[in-house]
Write a structure and sequence with these properties.
Shape: globular
Number of domains: 1
Distance between the termini: 24 Å
Number of helices: 3
Order of helices and strands: EEHHH
Strand content: 5-15%
Structural class: mainly alpha
Length: 99
């Protein structure tokens, strides 16, 4: 089957920046390519609703657990999520459940 994107130009929305990020204490210690042992490349959130384990090592079972486990460069985002009111957190988690 031919890839449908090979015949036309389509905009995609991967919900990722695909950059290397400092994982802080979550780094796996593996040096790979340009990534040192504290860095990981951001994975896209496509298919998140079907995932049974999250994070680079599968330590989180839910998006909420994954958000709360962030450290390093993700610490600021985690803290911003924690500071949201309950309704906004619920809306964000519901949105993630649609990906």
């Amino acid at each position: 089957m031919q890839n449908c994107y090979s015949r036309r130009r389509s905009a995609i929305h991967p919900f990722s920046d695909f950059l290397l990020h400092d994982m802080g204490s979550l780094g796996d210690g593996i040096v790979q390519g340009a990534a040192n042992g504290r860095q990981m490349r951001t994975a896209p959130l496509w298919g998140l609703r079907h995932a049974t384990s999250l994070m680079h090592d599968g330590r989180a079972a839910t998006p909420l657990q994954a958000i709360l486990a962030h450290d390093g460069q993700g610490r600021r985002s985690r803290n911003r999520f924690v500071s949201l009111d309950a309704r906004t957190k619920e809306a964000l988690l519901a949105f993630l459940g649609t990906l």
